[in-house]
User: Which sequence fits this backbone?
């Protein structure tokens, strides 16, 4: 009995300590971002990141994910309209609202969230694997020894790139999902494609929610993954653990943030989202 | 440019071929079913029991999310009796199995790749071969079976938790009575809706297991290689989950 209580306490303490450390990484990243923005002529400001690093990260996070995001979101868009039409066909047989409701769902929830989950898998694991292997080969210590802050050098460019590319990829993914859904509804159920180009259910608050979700996931993924990478210890086994933790942590962060933002929006609009 | 596309296509073809070959080896090892039972039980515990908390949390949130999306819509038409149908249908058929499989792939698949690839880069697989132990029979087969069995079991648990989550959130945020939610779920959802999700989770389990084992035993090059293998395994698992989901939905209706 006593051992179990000790175990619970230990787990709680570890969780608190990890949360604190995650928070510290987050604050340091924001501080590094601000430090990079304020132009200073002295040398300290130039100790930030290597030249061209930001462009390289944009390419690694954005361009290399395009096919992955387009394929996964396209297929899930097809599946969702297929299931919705199948179910509607059994109940009412009226397909005229499928398109506009599907668009509302994509913009307020599925587009950014599924894109965020996919990015958490691809980019989160990539960031943690890269930073983790730098950590275990002592490259992080070498950076610190030469007076470079590892967070400014490694996490800040990934943070900026992920924030921007999350929005870009979410827009791309939503468009692919929408057209894949429209094509499925048309070819499998004979739904008139014109009913899909109906924006009457879209309100400005859906677009605001879309942007907020993109920003939240784009900020959460690199922070959680970078934190997991920096915590890697040991050798190849440590890198593997760090990558696993990054995938789980960032996917879970996306789901929880989605819930918080959706519930908050519903509460603010009084149950009429 | 064109040669880059060709190289990418060749690499994908090589990976898919490798996964299929490994699946063939696993199937051959299953007839007759000879494997290390101790390893199997160990993996069943490690992959199943230890994943329950994360799966329960994910399922709860996914049920709650579906309710948040379906609730306002049915309330607008005054048909709160359909809320359980909308949320339950989406959860049981699509969102539940997919989200649970994605989390399972992150928690168990990635972990398995990390473990196998560490063994590979430290040459433990060659050590097994030197002792005349077939690594596929000893390491891969128990893991594949454990992952498939446990993903199905966890999806069944997760579906229930997701429905509970949807009900509780409907009561807390949308004032939908617990009893009307209960009738809505039991009246409108058929056992087939639940089974549809379970069929999918079998396929997802096989896909996650094969890709994670393949990238684990073909890794090359130290700590950097291990990180890259885990990354490749989760990406392959995510793509194959989405593709399989589409084809299974299309075929089984």
Assistant:
């Amino acid at each position: 009995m006593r051992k179990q209580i000790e175990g619970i306490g230990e787990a709680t303490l570890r969780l608190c300590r990890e949360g604190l450390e995650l928070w510290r990484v987050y604050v340091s990243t924001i501080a590094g971002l601000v430090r990079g923005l304020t132009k200073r002529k002295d040398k300290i400001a130039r100790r930030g990141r290597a030249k061209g690093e930001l462009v390289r990260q944009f390419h690694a996070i954005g361009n290399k994910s395009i096919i992955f995001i387009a394929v996964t979101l396209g297929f899930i868009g097809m599946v969702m309209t297929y299931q919705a039409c199948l179910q509607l066909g059994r109940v009412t047989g009226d397909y005229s609202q499928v398109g506009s409701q599907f668009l509302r769902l994509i913009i307020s929830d599925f587009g950014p969230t599924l894109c965020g989950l996919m990015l958490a898998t691809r980019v989160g694991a990539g960031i943690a694997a890269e930073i983790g292997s730098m950590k275990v080969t002592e490259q992080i210590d070498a950076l610190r020894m030469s007076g470079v802050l590892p967070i400014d050098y490694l996490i800040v460019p990934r943070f900026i790139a992920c924030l921007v590319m999350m929005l870009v990829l979410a827009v791309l993914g939503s468009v692919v999902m929408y057209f894949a859904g429209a094509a499925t509804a048309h070819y499998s159920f004979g739904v008139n494609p014109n009913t899909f180009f109906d924006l009457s259910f879209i309100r400005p608050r859906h677009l605001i929610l879309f942007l907020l979700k993109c920003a939240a996931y784009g900020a959460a993924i690199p922070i959680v993954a970078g934190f997991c990478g920096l915590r890697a210890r040991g050798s190849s086994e440590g890198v593997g653990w760090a990558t696993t933790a990054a995938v789980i942590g960032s996917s879970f962060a996306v789901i929880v943030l989605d819930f918080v933002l959706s519930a908050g929006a519903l509460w603010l609009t009084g149950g009429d989202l | 440019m064109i040669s880059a596309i060709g190289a990418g296509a060749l690499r994908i073809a090589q990976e898919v071929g490798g996964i299929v070959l490994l699946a063939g080896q696993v199937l051959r090892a299953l007839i007759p079913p000879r494997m290390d039972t101790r390893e199997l039980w160990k993996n069943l515990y490690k992959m199943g029991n230890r994943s329950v908390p994360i799966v329960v949390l994910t399922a709860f949130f996914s049920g709650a999310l579906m309710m948040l999306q379906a609730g306002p819509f049915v309330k607008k038409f005054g048909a709160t009796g359909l809320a359980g149908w909308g949320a339950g249908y989406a959860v049981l058929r699509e969102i539940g199995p997919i989200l649970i499989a994605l989390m399972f792939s992150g928690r168990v698949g990635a972990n398995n790749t990390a473990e196998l690839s560490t063994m590979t880069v430290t040459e433990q697989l060659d050590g097994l071969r030197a002792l005349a132990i077939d690594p596929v029979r000893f390491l891969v087969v128990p893991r594949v079976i454990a992952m498939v069995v446990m993903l199905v079991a966890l999806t069944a648990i997760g579906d229930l938790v997701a429905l509970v989550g949807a009900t509780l959130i409907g009561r807390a945020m949308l004032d939908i009575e617990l009893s009307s939610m209960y009738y809505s779920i039991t009246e409108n959802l058929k056992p087939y809706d639940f089974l549809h999700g379970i069929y999918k989770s079998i396929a997802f389990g096989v896909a996650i297991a094969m890709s994670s084992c393949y990238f684990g035993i073909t890794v090359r090059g130290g700590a950097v290689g291990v990180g890259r293998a885990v990354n490749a395994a989760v990406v392959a698992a995510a793509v194959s989950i989405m593709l399989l989901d589409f084809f299974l939905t299309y075929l089984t209706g």
